[in-house]
Amino acid sequence: MDSKELQLIITDDGSHTLYVPSLQETYHSKFGAIQESRHIFINEGLGYWLNRDQRKTKTLCVLEVGFGTGLNALLSAIYMRDHPEICLRYHALEPKPLPGEITKKLNYCRILHSGEQLWDRIHECKWGSEARISNNFRLFKDPTMVADFKNPYAYSYDLVFFDAFAPGKQPELWNPSVFEKIRDSMAKGGYLVTYCARGQFKRDLKSLGFNVQTLPGPSGKLEMVRAGKGASTDTTT
Q1: Which domains are seen in the chain, by residue range?
Q2: Residue from 194, 197, 218, 237 nearest 12 by CA
Q3: Which end of the chain offers a freer environment for a tag, N or C, measured as fewer CB atoms within 10 Å?
Q4: pLDDT of 193-211, one tens digit each?
Q5: What pLDDT digit, counting tens, does each position of 95-116 carry?
Q6: What is the pTM of this model?
């Protein structure tokens, strides 16, 4: 998409998102960009995994599909400050990176009252190679479509943050073949979290062997999904 068409808007929690007129879609929920990302990807993703992990691993590998503004990466880096014993290696896919002139306008650090240095490092590091953002957060920004991505470090991903545009806007990103590829790159016992809870999407995940759990969504959204690979969860339809 042409970055010139992107419109900066304020969501209900005061944080920014971007509106794409050609898709009639926003990067985040209009009910609150930060609250949505924190609920889905931090509380029900990163926090859930760390709280239940019995292996006491020293390295946690995350794959993000849809780096977008970098909000999920920022919240993850902030969260990991409380877990200095664990190194988070974060592989973010984004085929159409935003220019600095846009990311510099985003107000996340001001709303969070935290993370200014992390935000700068996240957006100033080079695409295509891993960068050290903090003592225990490594970021690999990958300008690749999910259908084409390769696993450069042969990670087995413990967590997948699936934050692509909605199925009705970019259906090719929600094809079962995409999730088959993601499944094959995940560690046994790993989880995928996303805002989408459509019935067909959940059926596709189940057909690929995921254990699908439907959870309460963030403000303004009834439901979300957490799906485990070889993980025991209470499943709902």
Answers
A1: 33-229 (3.40.50.150)
A2: 218
A3: C
A4: 999 999 999 999 999 999 9
A5: 999 999 999 999 999 999 999 9
A6: 0.94
